[in-house]
Amino acid sequence: MNFIMFLIIGAIAGWLAGTIMKGRGFGLLGNMVVGIVGAFIGGFLFSAVGLASYGLVGSLITATVGAVVLLFLIGLIKKT
Question: Membrane-spanning regions, if any (predicted)?
Fold first, then answer.
C-alpha cells in the first residue's frame, strides 16, 4: 500500500510541477518519474535547510518542490 501511495504522490507532484513550470510535463508516466525523483531532491533540499515535512500533505509539498527544481534544471540543460 505504501508503494501505491508513493506512486500516486509522485504522479500528483509531477503534474503540479509541470503546471507550475508552465507546461513542462511529460505525460503520466513521465510525471511519475519526475515526481519520484523530485521527492528525493526535495527531501535532500529540505533536510539541508533544516526543514521537515510530515504526513501526506508534507510529502506532496516536498515532492512538488523537488520536482519543480528538477524541471528547472532540465530546462537549463535543454537551453544549452
Answer: 6-21, 28-48, 54-77
Q: How far is the C-alpha of 32 from the C-alpha of 47, rounded, in Å?
A: 22
Please count the other Cβ atoms lying within 10 Å of the Cβ belonging to residue 74. Answer: 14
Cell numbers placing 56: 501526506
Q: What residue spans define the domains of the chain?
A: 2-79
Q: pTM higher than 0.85, yes or no?
A: yes
In terms of Cβ atoms closer than 10 Å to its own Cβ (0-12, 13-18, 19+), residue 19 is middle
HSE at residue 77, side-chain half, CA atoms within 13 A, is 6
